[in-house]
Design a protein that fits this description.
Blueprint (H helix, E strand, L loop, with lengths): L5 H13 L4 E5 L8 E8 L8 E2 L7 E7 L1 E7 L5 E8 L6 E4 L4 E6 L4 E8 L9 E2 L11 H11 L4
Antiparallel strand pairs: 1-2, 2-9, 3-10, 4-7, 4-9, 5-6, 5-8
Length: 157
């Protein structure tokens, strides 16, 4: 039995806070070849997850909020926002599933935010994510401005 506890989430969140990327994941799957990838993804405000989709091979992805507050955003192929949901135990929106071939990103809105993430496997770094060409890549100039523009469009900035 795998236990997901406040202590475990606190440890992963502390690692995220200390990380230059402002996020950290803790894998429950034993191998990248597992057909279901399961992890806790702790993230802090300001971390940048470039919009991406899982295609060729097609994979679904789901997020369930454990602590804090995050917004999950979906985009059309041109980069227009098509849907979003703020996940928080306080507002009663606890999770979301993203269809394969759908551009999406996750943005932390509160310190100490953590989600339980599930994704079809196996994980292969070469083809796991198809990054959106209309958004800056992680580490490039413009990431912070792009992130802020998304939050403003959603009325969260």
């Amino acid at each position: 039995m795998i236990h997901i506890t406040d202590t475990l989430i606190g440890e992963i969140s502390a690692q995220a806070q200390a990380s230059p990327r402002k996020r950290m994941n803790y894998n429950f799957h034993e191998h990248y070849s597992d057909t279901l990838q399961r992890m806790i993804n702790a993230m802090e405000p300001g971390t940048y997850v470039q919009p991406h989709k899982h295609e060729a091979p097609d994979k679904r992805e789901a997020f369930v909020v454990l602590t804090g507050k995050v917004v999950v955003v979906e985009f059309d192929p041109e980069g227009n926002i098509t849907d979003h949901i703020v996940l928080s135990s306080i507002n009663g929106a606890l999770g979301v599933e993203i269809a394969a071939k759908t551009y999406h990103m996750v943005i932390a809105l509160e310190p100490g935010s953590a989600v339980y993430e599930l994704k079809d496997g196996p994980y292969t770094p070469v083809d796991d994510k198809n990054f959106a060409p209309w958004a800056p890549a992680e580490g490039e100039a413009g990431c912070e401005a792009y992130l802020h523009s998304i939050l403003i469009k959603l009325g969260l900035g």
